[in-house]
Specification:
13 strands; 19% strand; binds NADP nicotinamide-adenine-dinucleotide phosphate
Length: 275
């Protein structure tokens, strides 16, 4: 028999996800009258069938992760403006028989940044986004909302060009072999590729050519210090991993489903530190 799912995260693979730790902490803290938040692993070809089954069985909503965010966008019947802006959905809500799509990664990324970083490294400054997947779409929109001048570079050039064509904000596309020509002028570099997961190398940027005032951000939160961030740290650049973004996007999804804006307590941070 299938277990009851009220809320959860769907993706492929899904074992690595720490979203259940965050959501279940808040479900307990606020005594939300719901079952625990679950992990659901499903291949892209079975995504629609599984989401429909969960909707029919009474689920409230789902977070969507790699590589299903663009599929979730086309599958949802109504999308928020922010989801339309990105063309990717990370939060599905089932209400009045309909499937609603939102993208809380945009606000999650924005809220994860210190005001000082926004003022010194993003607003009216050149920002470089590495990668052109679902997460990159959210980050490009967020940086543009913060008045950054956005450049994007991806292994597969066509995907970066697609982002440039599809998004309302239009980042400048840089071919990987030409990165050296712009990197010295960049104030903020953000890795949105999956390079760095499993401790893999990310050598897309040559840090010897980078302005020392740069701030380096990696969306990856496990490991906490990717080789990319470790190289930034060695050079005394400002740096940050993706944990705060993960928590902030989760908080926004929790608010959408349960109408409670949860606190990011020290207790929750300690739980996540222990991972
Ligand atoms: P995605 O849609 O699958 O995109 C993956 C990206 O990584 C693509 O740009 C892909 O380039 C690039 N890539 C993969 N392998 C590569 C390689 N060997 N060399 C160069 N580029 C490579 O995934 P996503 O949803 O955007 O997520 C990307 C990462 O962000 C994941 O690590 C995810 O965990 C993280 N993330 C974190 C948060 C957070 O809250 N902290 C939120 C969302 C995502 P190609 O186009 O060339 O394949």
């Amino acid at each position: 028999m299938n277990e009851v799912v009220k809320t959860g995260v769907i993706g492929f693979p899904i074992d690595h996800s720490v979203s259940p730790i965050i959501h279940n902490h808040w479900i307990d803290e606020y005594q939300v009258n719901t079952d625990s938040y679950k992990k659901i692993g499903v291949e892209p070809k079975l995504f629609e069938e599984e989401v429909l089954r969960l909707k029919e069985s009474g689920a409230l909503g789902l977070n969507v992760t790699v590589p299903l965010k663009e599929l979730a966008f086309s599958f949802s019947e109504e999308q928020t403006e922010i989801a339309k802006q990105t063309g990717a959905v990370n939060t599905l809500t089932f209400k009045n028989g309909k499937v609603y799509g939102d993208n809380t990664d945009v606000i999650g990324f924005q809220r994860s940044l210190d005001q000082e970083t926004v003022e010194n490294n993003i607003a009216n400054k050149k920002c470089l986004v590495l990668g052109a997947g679902g997460a990159a779409r959210a980050v490009v929109c967020a940086l543009s909302n913060l008045n950054g001048e956005v450049f994007i570079c991806n292994r597969t050039l066509e995907k970066a060009l697609k982002i440039q064509q599809n998004l309302r904000v239009q980042p400048e596309v840089i071919e990987q072999q030409n990165l050296g020509t712009v990197v010295g002028e960049i104030s903020f570099i953000v890795n949105t590729t999956s390079l760095g997961l499993g401790n893999t190398e990310n050598t897309m940027v040559d840090f010897t050519q980078v302005n020392p005032q740069v701030f380096v951000y990696d969306l990856i939160y496990n490991p906490k210090l990717t080789k990319f961030l470790s190289a930034a740290k060695e050079r005394n650049f400002g740096y940050q991993n993706g944990m705060k973004m993960l928590i902030e996007q989760a908080a926004e999804s929790f608010k959408i489903w349960h109408d409670i804006h949860p606190k990011i307590s020290d207790e929750l941070m300690n739980l996540l530190e222990e991972l």
